[in-house]
Amino acid sequence: xxxxxxxxxxxxxxxxxxxxxxxxxxxxxxxxxxxxxxxxxxxxxxxxxxxxxxxxxxxxxxxxxxxxxxxxxxxxxxxxxx
Length: 82
Description:
The chain is mostly helical and 82 residues long.
């Protein structure tokens, strides 16, 4: 006789809700991804100095002489705040 397999997928809170049903059973667990990393005082985002390479990707892509046209479009399309 083979044991019936039960597959449960979800976050830890969902998995732990099955603890009573799984008590005494042999269980295999696979963690699909780690917890989300969010910046905090204990876990700050590492600071990286800008290399300038990201700016050079955009160099030469704009003419810089369309400010008046852009402002005209803004004034023509803006609506009152509700």
